[in-house]
Design brief:
Layout (H helix, E strand, L loop, with lengths): L1 H17 L4 H14 L6 E6 L1 H4 L4 H4 L4 E4 L7 H6 L1 H4 L7 E5 L2 H5 L4 H18 L4 E5 L11 H16 L4 E4 L6 E2 L2 E2 L13 H16 L6
Parallel strand pairs: 1-2, 1-3, 3-4, 4-5
Antiparallel strand pairs: 6-7
């Protein structure tokens, strides 16, 4: 009888886990990343939604660093909250770059609620790996979501304020560099008007390289 109860408990736990959103995609990310990860080297993780997942030449841009891209497309901050071990902590990184919030706003989540999720994420990461540098990448502007720009700006303001209150947490603005004064640089995007082309990632690289290349005590 005890064996049956234990079996049912394990079965239901596994079943519940597999029913989580992005379960299969996260498993595929783990399999891909683990093939290239050298646990004897310092590791930097980039994670978040499709703007990270589609950054295919990320490692090539930083050839002297070990960069793991664990982005999973379509994700929101609440999805990352479910997989912080699998996508970040399992690789014992000294730095993690997080891009979430873009899809949250598009899904009509309020900036205040998104920040609440970020607080949970940051508290967990800092509890499990004290001293790890955490870089929050601002939400980016885009052609397809330009009508939501005020909400994105509110979110970015709150993210910047949150980062300023915590040790080892930094905020990087990628919104401003993608504008020409107040107008969006439309040549930074592929046909869907949401995701970036190489020109867009060139701009991201320009502002993020300082945080990638500097040692933790210089950030």
């Amino acid at each position: 009888m005890r064996f049956v109860i234990l079996f049912l408990f394990v079965f239901s736990a596994v079943n519940a886990q597999e029913s989580l959103p992005f379960f299969e995609e996260v498993k595929e990310v783990q399999q891909r990343v683990s093939q290239n990860w050298n646990n004897a080297e310092e590791t930097i993780v980039f994670t978040g939604s499709s703007s990270i997942r589609l950054w295919e030449d990320l490692q090539d841009r930083f050839p002297d660093k070990q960069i793991l891209n664990t982005g999973f497309g379509g994700s929101q901050s609440s999805d990352l909250e479910l997989y912080m071990d699998e996508l970040i902590l399992d690789y014992s990184p000294n730095k993690v770059f997080i891009y979430e919030g873009d899809n949250d706003i598009s899904s009509k989540r309020r900036p205040k609620a998104i920040i609440g999720t970020f607080v949970n994420i940051l508290e967990y990461l800092q509890e499990k790996r004290p001293g790890m540098e955490i870089v929050l990448i601002s939400a980016k502007p885009s052609i397809s979501r330009w009508h939501l720009k005020r909400k994105y700006l509110r979110l970015n303001k709150k993210l910047k304020k949150l980062a300023a209150t915590l040790p080892h947490v930094h905020f990087v603005d990628v919104w401003t560099i993608m504008l020409n004064k107040r107008k969006l640089k439309r040549n930074l995007f592929i046909e869907d008007g949401l995701h970036m082309n190489t020109k867009g990632y060139d701009l991201w690289y320009a502002v993020l390289k300082e945080y990638v290349n500097n040692s933790n005590n210089q950030l």
